[in-house]
Inverse folding.
């Protein structure tokens, strides 16, 4: 998918904010649902997903 | 697919593939030319081909010709059989087959007895529903082959979302017996979504879509999360009471009563099989005419006892007498949204699909159920809507053209649960920007929406007008519905309501839904607002140029670990970090 343009500014970095390599990992994403959902195996984007999954490729490898 | 077990399959080079939609009422065939899906007209010129076979003097008729024989040759005409496929007699609803060959119990399956051979003496044949399906599909495939000038070998066929494995297997087997390779069975609502997304001008975006599949004998609604062009069905509801046939019935009753009023003593045309069949055919064409014009005629020669009947009806009148059925569609759609755990404000698009979806009143009603931001994709509400009767076949044709190059084994593997069943995000993942009322409030900018299948990657561009050092704070987000009650107004409100209730009883007041809408707006304002949740990560991007754009990309991996990158657009360097899996 193309990048979405959001016409809003980012906040300024607070005074004294420091982190190794400029990145702080703080949390993990919520995964409440024990059950997984099923994608409909239809359309070109699903086929691309299936190709990546079956060849264990990442998005960036796929881009190349 | 997958359910149907391993099958040899053709070499891709040997295939000519089409899309087929096979309904209880109508079927369609479609193919792709120059990347565009096109529905094929059969030799009668029909693109909606009635799913009916009829036998006369040993000749087999199908489609509209067979449908016309419902008047003169009902017992040798097989109609409304699709939903009997793969089912036992005790679990079918034979209602719609009253006026044609009756379904019978035949061991594990259902059959029909018809005279399909020539000659007075010839014994009737008992045909299983599978055999009927095979014969019907053969006719469809022949029409497509004739049109394309080469033998059609393969197809993608659409099925309702509640078709079970046994029904699917029966369909694949019936197709195989007609010499047709089923490349894949795909679900009807997803075919409709693909028909829209497959248009060359379509833009792929994250959206929640409600697909209302309104046919003849059934109505099915699905709520679909469309995420980067991939589709996940969140909820489905099915209804067998409200459909096109129910609308026909309304008109049949209307005109039967009018006929009896004008022709006292001629009898009730609904009590004679042949008169009833004539009444039904004409009611359906009057109904279709009312989708286009505001007036339609109804005319039957020798309706009963040799008496001709001609009348007219206007759309307003029709919408009034059919109101109960239309309200049934409204409730069905609302219940699907609720079942998905969503609000109408969450719905970006409503796709109206199926023959009954041509009806302007249905689209107008949906328009008033959903907020103005929801696109209602129907002929009367959306200029570039696709013909609702063609959506499924077009979607099937697009899918057929996508997969016909693959070996059957490849298709099976790609559609296997190991590939299709994946975790989906629970909450939205986004970044904090400044905005809101003061332009300096923290606001949530969704990047990866909820219900997104992983792995997924999304990218946004934000601004940094002042340049310098900026903070990219990655957080989870949730929506909730904010309800604002207006200032209490004078109590005339109550009086207006009482007046309205009286109005509603008046037969010709068909604008009831718009009125309701106004009333709601007076009552309260409902809006969807984002709530900022837990912080996941912070990235500090230093030395950004004045007026630059900052690109933030979030990738959620298959194990729910997250990669965040932030960089100045067309700048150097940037920050990259990873969150452990959930
Ligand atoms: N222009 C129209 N306006 C209103 N109703 C229409 C129009 N065209 C077709 N219909 C109705 O649509 C219904 C058929 O819908 P469709 O062609 O989608 O069939 P289907 O999916 O095979 O139906 P089902 O399986 O529910 O019986 C019929 O009741 C028909 O009268
Ligand atoms: Mg249908």
């Amino acid at each position: 998918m193309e990048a979405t343009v959001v016409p809003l500014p980012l906040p300024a970095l607070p005074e004294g904010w420091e982190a190794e390599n400029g990145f702080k990992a703080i949390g993990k994403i919520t995964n409440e649902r024990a059950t997984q959902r099923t994608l409909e195996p239809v359309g070109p984007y699903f086929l691309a997903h299936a190709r990546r999954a079956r060849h264990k490729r990442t998005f960036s490898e796929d881009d190349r | 697919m997958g359910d149907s077990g391993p099958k040899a399959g053709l070499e891709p080079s040997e295939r000519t593939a089409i899309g087929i939609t096979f309904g209880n009422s109508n079927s369609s065939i479609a193919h792709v030319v120059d990347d565009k899906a096109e529905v094929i007209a059969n030799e009668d010129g029909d693109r909606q081909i009635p799913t009916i076979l009829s036998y006369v003097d040993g000749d087999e008729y199908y489609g509209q010709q067979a449908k016309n024989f419902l008047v003169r040759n009902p017992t040798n005409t097989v109609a409304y059989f699709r939903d009997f496929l793969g089912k036992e007699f005790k679990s079918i609803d034979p209602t719609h087959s009253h006026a044609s060959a009756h379904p019978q119990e035949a061991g594990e399956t259902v059959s029909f007895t018809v005279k399909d051979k020539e000659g007075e003496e010839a014994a009737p044949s008992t045909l299983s529903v599978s055999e009927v399906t095979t014969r019907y599909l053969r006719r469809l495939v022949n029409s497509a082959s004739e049109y394309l000038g080469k033998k059609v070998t393969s197809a993608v066929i659409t099925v309702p979302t509640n078709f079970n494995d046994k029904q699917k297997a029966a369909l694949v087997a019936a197709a195989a017996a007609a010499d047709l390779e089923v490349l894949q069975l795909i679900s009807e609502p997803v075919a409709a979504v693909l028909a829209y997304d497959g248009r060359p001008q379509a833009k792929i975006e994250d959206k929640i879509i409600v697909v209302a599949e309104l046919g003849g004998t059934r109505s099915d609604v699905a709520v679909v999360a469309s995420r980067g062009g991939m589709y996940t069905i969140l909820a489905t509801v099915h209804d067998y009471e409200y459909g096109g046939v129910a609308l026909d019935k309304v008109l049949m009753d209307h005109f039967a009563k009018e006929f009896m009023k004008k022709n006292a003593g001629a009898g009730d045309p609904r009590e004679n099989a042949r008169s009833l069949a004539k009444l039904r055919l004409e009611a359906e064409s009057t109904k279709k005419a009312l989708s286009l014009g505001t007036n339609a005629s109804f005319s039957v020669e020798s309706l009963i006892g040799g008496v001709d009947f001609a009348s007219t009806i206007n759309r307003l009148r029709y919408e009034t007498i059919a109101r109960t059925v239309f309200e049934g569609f409204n409730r069905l759609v609302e219940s699907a949204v609720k079942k998905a755990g969503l609000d109408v404000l969450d719905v970006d698009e409503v796709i109206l699909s199926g023959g009954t979806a041509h009806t302007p009143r249905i689209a107008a009603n949906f328009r008033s159920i959903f907020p103005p931001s929801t696109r209602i994709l129907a002929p009367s509400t959306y200029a570039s809507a696709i013909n609702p009767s063609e959506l499924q076949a077009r979607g099937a044709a697009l899918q057929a053209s996508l997969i016909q190059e693959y070996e059957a084994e490849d298709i099976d593997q790609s559609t296997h649960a190991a590939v299709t069943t994946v975790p989906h995000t629970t909450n939205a993942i986004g970044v904090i920007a400044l905005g809101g009322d003061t332009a300096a409030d923290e606001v949530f900018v969704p990047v990866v929406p909820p219900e997104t299948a992983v792995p997924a990657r999304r990218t946004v561009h934000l601004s940094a007008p002042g340049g310098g050092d900026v903070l990219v704070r990655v957080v989870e987000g949730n929506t909730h519905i904010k309800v604002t009650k207006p200032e209490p107004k004078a109590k005339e409100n109550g009086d207006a309501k009482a007046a309205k209730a009286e109005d509603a009883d008046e037969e010709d007041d068909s604008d009831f839904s718009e009125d309701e809408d106004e009333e709601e707006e007076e009552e309260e304002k409902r809006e969807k607002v984002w709530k900022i949740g837990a912080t996941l990560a912070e990235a500090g991007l230093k030395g950004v140029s004045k007026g630059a754009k900052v690109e933030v990309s979030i990738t959620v991996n298959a194990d729910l670990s997250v990669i965040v990158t932030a960089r100045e657009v067309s700048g150097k360097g940037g920050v990259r970090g990873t969150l452990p899996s959930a």
Remarks:
- The beta strands of chain A are 4-9, 23-25, 37-38.
- The pocket of adenosine-5'-triphosphate (ligand 1) is lined by residues B 23-26, 48, 215-218, 243-245, 284, 287-288, 291, 354-356, 358-359, 389 (CB under 6 Å).
- The CA atoms of residues 17 and 23 of chain A lie 10 Å apart.
- The longest strand of chain A covers residues 4-9.
